[in-house]
């Protein structure tokens, strides 16, 4: 029976889709059955980051509205056979998603997978609330930057009020994933450090993803960063976060991409 | 890491540009024919339905959008009895050509 997690943030551009793809691929590489679901109706991008954009036929709305079966809409990853994508619709508007329909789809996914990862759209409107509504817990993606932290605080408030768990009086678990982190600048006091953000948001830390050119490189190529270059710093940070999701105790360090002397001499692996 | 991988890593912006060109070309055309594939599927199934009963759950539609050509693949699982009845009407039915898997 799957655990359903929502990747959310409030603010756009902080790395929700990158995170969904990277965590999904890391879990699937460890043998878990994973489906990543794009809730950004009208502005889908998870298909592009996963490299499956040429293969989308049916999407979440087709399934919600009964125009396609779930099995027909799931797109199997070409690299890892336990990884699936359910795309969002590019042409419909977000009002086509009904709460009952989403609940039914998530209920249908649960028995077939170990993880259902819902990629929330930015904002706090319908798409974002539907993505979090039926989740068992949330990963709140935050940049060490004032507007992102503020928006994350708002999202944490919503997670505690509008989700099914909250409505049933159960605690809604939330974990912080700090992305685009630069330990050197944070050390110099030029960037909010981990403790600054934790002090404000007061939720447990799932991981710290360092700022890295590898993320753009991976999205250019349509490959989750944990698959594209598993040894890179962000990939190791995401893989550690995925292991924590599975309950492992993994020491929290911020990996770095060390440029070797050779790569400096012969030009950087430019993204 | 293979040599070709190193090459493709250096050219990742070119890969990104090409992927976007192909995708956007399809999306701009698709604006007017958004739900063409479900319509195609329904009409193809209606034609087949004239000769045999098809279980909608046993139909898989796949698309691979390319820059020069796209591939639309519709796999329809045909029950043995329906196949037998069809062969009675039309002669040998080349299942192996339509269902490679």
Helix- and strand-based class of chain B? mainly alpha
Strand order of the largest sheet of chain A: 3-4-2-5-1-6-7-8
Q: How many domain units of chain A? A: 1
- Low-confidence stretches of chain A at least 5 residues in length (pLDDT < 50)? 267-271
Structural class of chain A: alpha/beta
The CATH top-level class label of chain A: Alpha Beta
Total helical elements of chain B: 5
* Number of contiguous helices of chain A: 14
Tell me the series of helices and strands of chain A, N- to C-terminal. Answer: EHEHHHEEHEHEHHEHHEHHHH
Sheet having the most strands of chain B: 2 strands, antiparallel
Distance N to C terminus of chain B = 32 Å
Overall spatial form of chain A: globular
Sequence of secondary-structure elements of chain B: HHHEEHH
Q: Helix content range of the residues of chain A, please?
A: 25-40%
Extended strand count of chain A: 8
CATH architecture of chain A: 3-Layer(aba) Sandwich
Give a quick summary of the entry:
The complex is a heterodimer of chains A (271) and B (101). With 271 residues, chain A is α/β, with parallel strands linked by helices. Chain A has helices spanning 16-29, 46-50, 60-64, 70-73, 99-109, 126-133, 146-159, 164-167, 183-187, 194-201, 214-221, 225-228, 233-245, 261-265, and strands at 3-8, 34-38, 75-76, 83-86, 115-119, 137-142, 173-181, 205-210.
Main features:
heterodimer; A: 271 residues; alpha/beta; Rossmann fold; eight-stranded mixed beta sheet; 14 helices; 8 strands; globular; disordered C terminus; B: 101 residues; mainly alpha; two-stranded antiparallel sheet; 5 helices; 55% helix; elongated
Structure report:
- The complex is a heterodimer of chains A (271) and B (101).
- Chain A is α/β, with parallel strands linked by helices and 271 residues long.
- Chain A contains 14 helices and eight strands.
- An eight-stranded mixed beta sheet of chain A has the order 3-4-2-5-1-6-7-8, sandwiched between helices.
- Chain A is globular, with a radius of gyration of 18 Å.
- The model of chain A is unreliable at 267-271 (pLDDT under 50).
- Mean pLDDT of chain B is 74; it is low at 94-101.
- The longest helix of chain B is centred in the first third of the chain and has 19 residues, at 12-30.
- Chain B has 101 residues and is mostly helical.
- Chain B is built from five helices and two strands; from the N terminus they run αααββαα.
- Chain B has helices at 3-10, 12-30, 36-49, 80-90, 95-98, and strands at residues 59-64, 71-76.
- Chain A binds chain B through residues 48, 53-58, 62, 67-69, 71-72, 90-91, 216-217, 219-222, 269-271, and chain B through 6, 8-10, 12-13, 15-16, 19, 22-23, 26-27, 30-31, 34-35, 37-38, 56-57, 59-66.
């Amino acid at each position: 029976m799957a655990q359903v997690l929502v990747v959310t943030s409030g603010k756009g551009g902080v790395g929700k889709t990158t995170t969904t793809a990277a965590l999904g691929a890391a879990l699937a590489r460890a043998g878990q059955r994973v489906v990543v679901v794009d809730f950004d109706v009208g502005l889908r991008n998870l298909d592009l980051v996963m490299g499956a954009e040429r293969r989308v036929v049916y999407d979440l709305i087709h399934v919600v509205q009964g125009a396609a079966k779930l099995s027909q809409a799931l797109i199997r990853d070409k690299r890892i056979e336990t990884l699936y994508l359910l795309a969002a619709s590019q042409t419909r508007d977000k009002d086509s998603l009904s709460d009952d329909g989403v609940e039914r789809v998530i209920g249908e996914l649960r028995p077939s997978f170990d993880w259902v990862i819902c990629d929330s759209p930015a904002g706090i409107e319908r798409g974002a609330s539907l993505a979090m509504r039926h989740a068992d817990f949330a990963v709140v993606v935050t940049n060490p930057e004032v507007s992102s932290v503020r928006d994350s605080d708002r999202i944490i408030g919503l997670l505690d009020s509008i989700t099914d768990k909250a409505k049933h009086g159960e605690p809604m678990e939330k974990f912080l994933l700090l992305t685009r982190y630069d330990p050197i600048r944070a050390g110099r006091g030029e960037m909010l450090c981990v403790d600054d953000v934790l002090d404000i948001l007061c939720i447990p830390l799932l991981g710290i993803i360092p700022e890295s050119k590898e993320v753009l490189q991976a999205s250019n190529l349509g490959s989750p960063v944990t698959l594209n270059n598993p040894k890179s710093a962000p990939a190791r940070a995401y893989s550690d976060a995925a292991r924590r999701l599975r309950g492992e105790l993994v020491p929290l360090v911020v990996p770095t991409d060390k440029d070797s002397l050779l790569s400096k001499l012969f030009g950087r692996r430019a993204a | 890491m293979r040599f070709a991988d190193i090459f493709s890593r250096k050219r990742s912006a070119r890969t990104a540009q090409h992927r976007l060109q192909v995708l956007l070309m399809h999306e701009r055309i698709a604006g007017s024919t958004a739900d063409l594939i479900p319509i195609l599927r329904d009409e193809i199934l209606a034609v087949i339905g004239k000769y045999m009963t098809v279980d909608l759950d046993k139909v898989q539609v796949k698309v691979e959008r390319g820059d020069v050509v796209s591939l639309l693949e519709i796999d329809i699982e045909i029950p043995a009895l329906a196949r037998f009845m069809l062969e009675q009407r039309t002669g040998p039915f080349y299942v192996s050509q339509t269902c490679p898997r």
